[in-house]
């Protein structure tokens, strides 16, 4: 019972901490390494050049023999009210001490109580006597139930709670999971944005030490209420499209309220309700919103006609209580960015100035946080009382930079500067591995874009011969700038011979793009390329643009660009990523991409579309089966090794993956045949991690070069995991990608798994350079995104052997 | 004072809403009536009354005092400004401070308050403290209004359980006569008038026992004449400040300036957006485009400039759109924030790109190309 009690107790603790639910974001207690014998001794690689790195991890130091004592507190007679229980217990502060954490039944103390009595069936018991104001005597029994070593999961969770308390003591504001400093905001009035600087923190058991991983975090807030946004939407789109526009813009966003310190997610808008509507209070009485906010918070709601926002409450204290909260738009402020804002180049540029911090800057900001902690007396006192302290200097150690990969293209092999992780220049005007001719193709454009269409065509004629792509004259078709006009032409003019359709769009209106993509991915499976007229309008860049488009189209038709050396034979590589459509229908889409050939230049792509509540994995199983069938068609045998790179796994979902998804993969392989037992490796890919690494060079800090592998010190002892920095960034800090091998029967050395992973980051054809994740993950992402954003159902399988979604 | 125990005995006699809420509501009503600017809560305990009062828009200074720092610390963060308070600073200023100390001691930080509340406080005082209490609150702090609430012992027999006091920490509980005589004497001594009331009505037929909580509202008889009383006051601070929060307010130049700049630029963007979409209808025809744009020559021309200053219309010159400040000032939100045109100019000086004569906000045309 103690196990479940511990976690439920801590959940309550965190409830008090924040009033929200808490998942185990750190996937504590998922011990996957122990099942993999070949990495018991060591999970580190060896190849490459050594590099001195520092990081944003700080060692936690505690007094010797540090332990956390967990007590169960019982009352006789039984008492219900938590407040009363706590008040009665702390009448005995002399005994209990000032430093404690108590949730009503479980008490944590940094010290062991002097226990008078030993009960054979209950352990050490301290009995206390309190008196209620009714004059009733209550016996309190404090029983020691557990002595937790510093590395136990409970203790780690506990450290995190304590650390959050400290941040709160520093007057930082909690928004979501992180803490922010509100007193020194950066304001970007052009876009009505405000940026708060803050910190994300987590304390975990790493390879050798318990460490604090702290990172600078930026919170984008908006200086307007939801009602303001609704007003400006109304003026932009007019009455007719107003409700739709509101739903698109607002649903899924996180809001802060004027009256409490909580965040809510907007899940729906109730247009039939308004502030004069009533709701039922917990005591059963009914009240209008207007009255409630006036009475409770002295807030006058000025607009009585606004609709009401609905936020679903997720879980409450571990139980599944579904409920919803109604919020008044006028009293809610928006946080974060919408997709629309993200696609606003100027806005993102203005934001990046403030949020993209270079390595040195980032470490400086982090140093500021630590100095707050170090200098604040109250914080130091709290730390001392628990017997905890931090090493204020970040951890440094050695990583490795693995050898750069050679790129092969049509029989030639070439080097490029590994520092830039980009071979755009080097491959220019080289023949492709496989060039698909464009013998029969359509070019659609509107009247005003006729010149642009011609310019594109001429440029294509110029750039394609060197690549080895044969381009014939297309059917040039002028269309009206209406969605129906495009679709009609497509229906009429596409023949079985059509290789590809190119549409020049005059605006980035999403509905037109969606309609074209939907038609050409489902009803009429033909590769298609949409180009914005604006991108073609500048004569000085048109050649570059045409080159890119030519390559992209070639891939969409099943062409191959370049390859790297893959020493493993008979391997199938799988990439999976998910897209969650939060706006319409709440679908989830899993993109599934599997290699088809030895050189990893051809891929089989499918996706799973499913509505809320369904399990993703069933669909993935079916994908794996068809992928294996296709692989065997291409290679005349089944693969002997399968690598699955699984992206799109949320914090706290690792357990589900290990216990549910991996067994399903194995099941699926078993179902292929009795004598078929390939070696399977499942690797969880995580792009959003708190860890940052800095190369220490010449007294300064720089981003580590591409190919930097980290598999010591900051990895987790219970996992077979490593970090790879594969890409480069122009601004700010490069984010490492975390790879967690959760299942592995490959018997490969960690070094080889790391190298293979890095090689695959070179294989994404939409970018002539190294990317953040293995190519199949990025392909899977692209596919899931296209389907989730535009198509909303599974594309036609006729296209599945081509990268039609690039 | 202590909600837990109150809750417990509402089992027997149920008050709806709970008694502590009724006491808080009583104070809130009083605040609504007298609109005090500075309010202190003595014996503020878990800060729940202060939390409620922070939403009262007339209050600019809130202070709490308690003998137990821990109980204040438990919930003091509820008194901190919320993120939204920073995003949309309020017109009023508000400072909330918590002090650790005794009501039997004088500290200058408690001077100058309009309203002092002592809700369920005095019955926790030792005899010696109670003796000093009137001098500290009425003599030293000397606010315009003092509210004191305390249990009415005559009500106690209605609770079924046998007990001496309602809370183990109570040092006494007074009958109505006892409280009133103490209150009248105190009022007389320090020149206050006092009225008695209470919350928690007795059951019908038992009206004689009076309210469950008896309340005295003391009002100082005449306006304080200068600093006369304060002259002999010790100035040494004896309380320890355990919490202080200054709410962002538009009264603070820094926040006002941010708000104004942000509003000015945002308003300018709106005007530009409207103007450009109107402008665009013409701009497809290159000839008309040049017509409706004042040329560079025209602009540098003195006459041209004069016309521009007078005009409230935005105009384009080169790569810039000029939005006259006067137009921006005519927007209600900007107007309300700044009050005067001069103030507007002063606040945005150096922070917003203006035309050379300072009459218009300059925005780059480039930004517009995103939409369609």
UniProtKB/TrEMBL annotation, chain A:
This is Piwi-like protein 1. GO terms for cellular component: cytoplasm. InterPro entries: ArgoL1, PAZ_dom, PAZ_dom_sf, Piwi, RNaseH-like_sf, RNaseH_sf. One of its GO terms (molecular function) is piRNA binding. GO terms for biological process: germ cell development; meiotic cell cycle; regulation of translation; regulatory ncRNA-mediated gene silencing. Its cofactor is Mg(2+). Residues 225-336 form the PAZ domain. Keywords: Cytoplasm, Developmental protein, Differentiation, Endonuclease, Hydrolase, Magnesium, Meiosis, Metal-binding, Methylation, Nuclease, RNA-binding, RNA-mediated gene silencing, Translation regulation. It comes from Donacobius atricapilla.
Automatic annotation (TrEMBL), chain B:
One of its GO terms (cellular component) is cytoplasm. It is an enzyme of class 2 (transferase). Its EC number is 2.1.1.386. It comes from the Eukaryota. Keywords: Magnesium, Metal-binding, Methyltransferase, RNA-binding, RNA-mediated gene silencing, S-adenosyl-L-methionine, Transferase. SUPFAM superfamilies: S-adenosyl-L-methionine-dependent methyltransferases. InterPro entries: Hen1 (IPR026610), SAM-dependent_MTases_sf (IPR029063). It catalyses: small RNA 3'-end nucleotide + S-adenosyl-L-methionine = small RNA 3'-end 2'-O-methylnucleotide + S-adenosyl-L-homocysteine + H(+). GO terms for biological process: piRNA processing; RNA methylation; siRNA processing. Its cofactor is Mg(2+). PANTHER family: HEN1, SMALL RNA 2'-O-METHYLTRANSFERASE. Belongs to the methyltransferase superfamily. HEN1 family. This is Small RNA 2'-O-methyltransferase.
């Amino acid at each position: 019972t103690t196990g479940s009690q511990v976690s439920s107790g801590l959940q309550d603790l965190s409830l008090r901490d924040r009033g929200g639910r808490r998942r185990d974001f750190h996937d504590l207690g998922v011990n996957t390494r122990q099942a993999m014998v070949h990495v018991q001794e060591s999970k580190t690689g060896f190849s490459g050049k050594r590099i001195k790195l520092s990081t944003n991890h700080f060692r936690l130091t505690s007094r010797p023999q540090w332990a956390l004592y967990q007590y169960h507190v019982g009352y006789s007679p039984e008492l219900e009210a938590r407040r009363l229980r706590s008040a009665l217990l702390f009448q005995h502060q002399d005994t209990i001490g000032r430093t404690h954490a108590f949730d009503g039944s479980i008490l944590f103390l940094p010290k062991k109580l002097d226990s008078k009595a030993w009960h054979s069936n209950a352990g050490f018991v301290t009995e206390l006597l309190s008196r209620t104001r009714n004059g009733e005597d209550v016996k309190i029994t404090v029983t020691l139930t557990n002595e937790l070593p510093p590395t136990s999961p409970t203790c780690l969770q506990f450290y995190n709670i304590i650390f959050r308390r400290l941040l709160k003591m520093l007057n930082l504001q909690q928004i979501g999971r992180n803490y922010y400093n509100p007193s020194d905001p950066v304001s970007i009035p052009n876009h009505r944005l405000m940026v708060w600087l803050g910190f994300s923190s987590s304390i975990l058991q790493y390879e050798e030490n318990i460490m604090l991983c702290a990172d600078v975090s930026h919170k984008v807030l908006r200086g307007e209420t939801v009602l303001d946004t609704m007003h400006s939407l109304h003026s932009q789109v007019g009455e007719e499209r107003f409700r739709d526009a509101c739903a698109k813009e607002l649903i899924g966003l996180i809001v802060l309220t004027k009256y409490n310190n909580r965040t809510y997610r907007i899940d729906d808008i109730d247009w039939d309700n308004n502030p004069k509507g009533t709701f039922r209070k917990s005591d059963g009485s009914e009240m209008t919103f207007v009255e409630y906010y006036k009475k409770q918070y002295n807030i006058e709601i000025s607009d009585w006609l606004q609709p009401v926002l609905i936020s679903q409450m997720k879980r409450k204290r571990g139980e599944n209580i579904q409920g919803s909260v109604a919020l008044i738009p006028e009293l809610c402020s928006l946080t974060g960015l919408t997709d629309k804002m993200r696609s606003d180049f100027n806005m993102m540029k203005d934001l990046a100035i403030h949020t993209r911090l270079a390595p040195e800057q980032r470490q400086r900001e982090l140093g500021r946080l630590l100095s707050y902690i170090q200098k604040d007396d109250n914080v130091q006192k709290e730390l001392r009382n628990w017997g905890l302290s931090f090493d204020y200097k970040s951890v440094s150690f050695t990583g490795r930079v693995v050898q750069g990969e050679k790129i092969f293209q049509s029989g030639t092999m070439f080097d490029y500067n590994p520092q830039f992780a980009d071979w755009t220049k080097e491959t220019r005007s080289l023949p492709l591995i496989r060039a698909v001719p464009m013998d029969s193709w359509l070019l659609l454009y509107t009247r005003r874009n006729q010149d642009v269409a011609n310019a594109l065509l001429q440029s294509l004629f110029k750039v394609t011969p060197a690549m080895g792509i044969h381009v014939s004259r297309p059917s040039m078709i002028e269309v009206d700038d209406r969605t129906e006009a495009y679709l009609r032409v497509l229906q009429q003019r596409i023949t079985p011979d059509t290789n590809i359709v190119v549409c020049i769009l005059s605006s980035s209106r999403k509905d037109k793009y969606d309609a074209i993509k939907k038609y050409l991915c489902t009803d009429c499976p033909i590769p298609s390329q949409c180009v914005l007229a604006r991108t073609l309008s500048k004569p000085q860049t048109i050649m570059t643009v045409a080159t890119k488009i030519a390559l992209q189209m070639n891939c969409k038709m099943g062409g191959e660009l370049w390859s790297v050396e893959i020493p493993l034979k008979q391997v199938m590589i799988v990439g999976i990523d998910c897209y969650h459509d939060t706006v319409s229908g709440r679908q989830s889409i899993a993109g599934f991409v599997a290699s088809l050939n030895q050189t990893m230049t051809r891929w089989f792509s499918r996706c799973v579309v499913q509505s809320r509540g369904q399990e993703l994995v069933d669909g993935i199983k079916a994908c794996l089966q068809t992928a294996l069938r296709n692989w065997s068609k291409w290679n005349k045998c089944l693969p002997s090794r399968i690598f699955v790179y699984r992206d799109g796994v949320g914090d706290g979902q690792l357990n589900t993956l290990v216990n549910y998804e991996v067994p399903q993969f194995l099941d699926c392989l078993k179902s292929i045949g009795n004598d078929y037992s390939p070696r399977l490796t499942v690797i969880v890919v995580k792009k959003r991690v708190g860890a940052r690494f800095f190369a220490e060079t010449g007294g300064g800090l720089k981003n580590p070069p591409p190919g930097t592998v980290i598999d010591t010190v900051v990895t987790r002892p219970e996992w077979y995991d490593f970090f790879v920095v594969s890409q480069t960034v122009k601004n700010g800090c490069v984010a490492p990608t975390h790879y967690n091998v959760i299942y592995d029967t490959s018997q490969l050395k960690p070094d080889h798994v790391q190298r293979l992973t890095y090689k695959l980051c070179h294989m994404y054809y939409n970018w002539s350079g190294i990317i953040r994740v293995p190519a199949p993950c990025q392909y899977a992402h692209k596919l899931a995104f296209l389907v989730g954003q535009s198509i909303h159902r599974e594309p036609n399988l006729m296209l599945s052997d081509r990268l039609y979604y690039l | 004072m202590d909600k837990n125990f109150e809750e417990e005995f509402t089992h027997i006699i149920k008050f709806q809403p709970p008694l502590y809420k009724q006491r808080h509501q009583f104070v809130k009503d009083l605040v609504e009536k007298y609109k005090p600017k500075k309010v202190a809560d003595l014996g503020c305990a878990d800060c729940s009354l202060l939390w409620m009062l922070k939403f009262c828009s007339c209050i600019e200074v809130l202070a709490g005092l308690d003998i137990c720092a821990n109980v204040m610390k438990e919930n003091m963060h509820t008194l901190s400004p919320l993120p939204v308070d920073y995003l949309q600073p309020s017109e009023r200023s508000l400072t909330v401070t918590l002090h650790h100390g005794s009501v039997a001691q004088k500290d200058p930080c408690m001077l100058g308050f309009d309203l002092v509340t002592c809700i369920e406080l005095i019955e926790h005082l030792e005899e010696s403290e109670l003796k000093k209490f009137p001098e500290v609150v009425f003599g030293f702090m000397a606010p315009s209004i003092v509210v004191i609430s305390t249990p009415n012992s005559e009500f106690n027999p209605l609770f079924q359980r046998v007990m001496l006091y309602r809370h183990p920490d109570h040092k006494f509980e007074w009958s109505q006569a006892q409280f009133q005589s103490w209150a009248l004497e105190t009022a007389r001594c320090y020149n206050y008038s006092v009225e008695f009331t209470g919350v928690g009505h007795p059951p019908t037929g038992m009206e004689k026992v009076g309210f469950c909580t008896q309340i005295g509202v003391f009002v100082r008889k005449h306006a304080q004449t200068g600093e006369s009383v304060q002259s002999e006051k010790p100035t040494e601070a004896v309380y320890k400040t355990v919490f202080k929060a200054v709410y962002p307010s538009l009264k603070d130049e820094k926040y006002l300036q941010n708000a104004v700049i942000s509003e000015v630029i945002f308003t300018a963007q709106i005007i530009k957006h409207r103007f450009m979409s109107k402008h665009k209808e013409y701009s497809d025809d290159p000839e008309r485009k040049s017509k409706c744009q004042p040329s560079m020559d025209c602009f540098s021309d003195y006459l041209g400039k004069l016309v521009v200053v007078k005009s409230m219309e935005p105009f384009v010159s080169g790569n810039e759109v000029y939005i006259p400040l006067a137009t921006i000032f005519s927007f209600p939100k900007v107007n309300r924030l700044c009050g005067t045109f001069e103030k507007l100019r002063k606040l945005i000086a150096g922070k917003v790109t203006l035309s050379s004569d300072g009459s218009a906000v300059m925005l780059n045309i480039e930004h517009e190309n995103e939409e369609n």
